[in-house]
Amino acid sequence: MKTLKSALVVSALFTMPVAQADVLGFGASIGYWDSDLSGKAAKGGDRVNVENDLDLSNNNEVNLSAYLEHPVPLLPNVRLSYLRIDQSGRGELGTGFDGIPVGATVDSSLDWRQTDLTLYYEVLDNWINLDLGLTARDLDAELKVSDRAGLYNSETKIDAVVPMAYAAGRFDLPLTGVSVGINGNVVSYGGDSVYDYDIYGQYNYAGVQLRAGYREMAVDYEDGDERLDIDVGGPFASVGFSF
C-alpha cells in the first residue's frame, strides 16, 4: 500500500489549541442510507460499469457509529463507525471483462465493508463546534461477476487501511435544539483518492438526536491490477443518543 506523508498534519493537530470536554461523554447512532451506486471496476486492462453493465445501482444501507469524549488533556477523543454495502444485480456486459465475453448475461454481487477509527480534538465547543483529527479506514470490498451458464467467474477485491484527514463542523441554534452540520473524511495520494462527507440538519431533545441529510462517498483505489472507482450517494436519516 502506498504511504501517506501526514507528519505535518499530525504535528498541527498536537500543537493547535483544543477545547476539552468538562465531563466524560458518550454517544451512539444508527442510520439508514438510501444510496445510489455508480462507477467502474477494473481488472488488468478490462473495465466494467457497475451500474449499466452489472445493474448494481440503488440500495439501502444501515450504518453504525459511536464516540467517546473525555476531559483528559492532550489525549484525543475517539469515534468508531461501520458501514456495509451489500448489493446484487443481473446485467449484460457491454464489453468483455476478465475472460467473460461481451454480451454475456451476468450475475454480480458487491460486498463492501468499512470500519473507521477516528482520533480527533475539539477545537471549538460552544454554539459553533469544530472537530479535527485523523481517520484510519479499514476498507474491504469484493466484486464477484459470473455468467449465467457458470462457465466464467471473476473476483475483484480491494483490501486496505486508508489514512484520512477528518473534520466535523456544527452550528447550534441557541435554545432550540436545532443544528446544522457537515462531517468529512478525505485523502488523495499516489493516484488514489477517497472522500466521504455528509451534510445534515439535527434536532436534539433530552439527549435523543434525530438527524437527516445527504451523504456522498467516492473511492478511487488501485490494488495491484485491480481497481475500484465507485461513487455512492443519497439521502440518509439517523437516530442517536448522547450523555
TrEMBL record:
Signal peptide annotation? 1-21
Q: Which keywords does UniProt give here? A: Signal
Supply the InterPro entries for this chain. Answer: OMP_w_GlyGly
Instruction: Tell me if Signal is a UniProt keyword of this record.
Output: yes
Q: What is this protein called?
A: TIGR04219 family outer membrane beta-barrel protein
Source species = Marinobacter lacisalsi
Organism taxonomic ancestry: Bacteria, Pseudomonadati, Pseudomonadota, Gammaproteobacteria, Pseudomonadales
